[in-house]
Amino acid sequence: MLQAPPYLKPGDKVAITAPASKLEATAVEIAVNILKERWGLQVVVGETIGASYHDFAGSDAQRASELQRFLEDDSVNLILAARGGYGVSKILDSLSFEHFSPKWICGFSDLTALLLHINSLGFQAIHGVMAKTMAFDEPSNESLKNLLFGGKVDYVFTHNSEYFIEGKAEGEAIGGNLCLLANSVGSKSDISFDGKILFLEDISEYLYSIDRMLVQLGRAEKLAKLAGLVVGDFSDCKENDEPFGKNFQEIILEHISKYSYPVAFGFEFGHENRNFAIRMGETLSLDVNKFESKLKSI
Length: 298
Hints:
The chain has about 300 residues and is of the alpha/beta class. It has helices at about 30-40, 60-70, 90, 110-120, 140-150, 180-185, 205-220, 250-255; strands spanning about 15, 40-45, 80, 105, 125, 155-160, 165-175, 195-205, 230-235, 265, 280, 285-290, 290-295. It folds into 2 domains: about 15-150, Murein tetrapeptidase LD-carboxypeptidase, N-terminal domain (Rossmann fold); about 155-295, Glucose Oxidase, domain 1, CATH 3.50.30. It is about 25% helix and about 25% strand. Strands 6-13-12-7-8-9-10 form a 7-stranded mixed sheet. A 6-stranded mixed sheet has the order 2-1-3-4-5-11, with helices on both faces. Helix 6 (about 180-185) runs parallel beside helix 7 and helix 7 runs parallel beside helix 8. The termini are close together.
């Protein structure tokens, strides 16, 4: 299991930054209120919040500089991404982790690239709601708070009776957005998936593109030796004019059909309003039967 940064306690400091796409400054107001008034934390809002450079929250240099400052700041206990979009991968290789002060980093979507890089350094990171999306769903917020303050993972969810593979597994959690995971192959952030429980989600992808990205992971030998697979939301999947012929569940099952690990679909994880948190790098147990699936801290 990867090292967990220090868990939060009341009075700790959260830095909100936008390392990818731009957003209005008002979009983080609800999150700031929750973090301060309900969770008892201090909040620092970065200058990238409300900044604009084309579609980004400032230039690559501006976004990297702010993130670098928060990574090295000993007084910051949590870096919370403001939103995803696109842009984290563009700045990753310009960051230095020589003086990284271990702390929690949280986000999803495009932030998968950063979470994976933090995992490659030997630390856990959290796939969960971001400042903008904290306005959407209180149970998702509470799941993040639970994990940040040292609570256990304990999720039970039902699945479509057509799509599952029964079994039990234990392994480190890894994953997030399928597109970013496929794009990380061969990069400095690339790590082994062997013996791990892989989490997948994505949004607005063509079905053939989902198939192509899984081909990439398969060719890179990322799927062969998993301990288990947990599939979250694949929102707004798209068809070509000529139908692809399979839904996303069937595509995924086809790519892992020659392996024998458990597979759970239906975990509320991804781009829908309900987005439960997972500590990537924590060792979890997965138990899949014909009626439900269970994810728990060990």
